[in-house]
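U., I forgot to send this yesterday:
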Amino acid sequence: MRVVQFLQVVVLLLLLAYGVLVYLENPVLLRLPLLFAGREAVLPAGLALSLGVLAGALYAALLILPRYLRQRLLRRSDMLRRRDAETRLQSTLQAVIDSSGRSEAVAESESTAQATASVQHPVTQGSAAQNPAAQNSAARA
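Result:
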């Protein structure tokens, strides 16, 4: 990966050096030799400089774009995984809360039923074995 970055920097420096050499040869009008048909493009120095800056900006954007897109995709996939994990955790916690709520409701209904039974049948709940006064009166009789 570092070799690719090094080559990209070298190519940018070569483009800059080419532009400087051409500008030094022709300070007012630039003659840019075209690679095909042996022709030249004659441009004012300001226009040639702006075209060079534009070409460099496009090249830099093309260098940065893949990393930016990769980071954006990674962030998006991480966000989706995190959201999925949160929904699974939330559903698990809700199920645990619901199950503990049901067991508490069952225990509460059982205790309510026992309390109701003790109010309705106090003699059967309070036997002589549990009541010392009843034991004493039974022993005297």
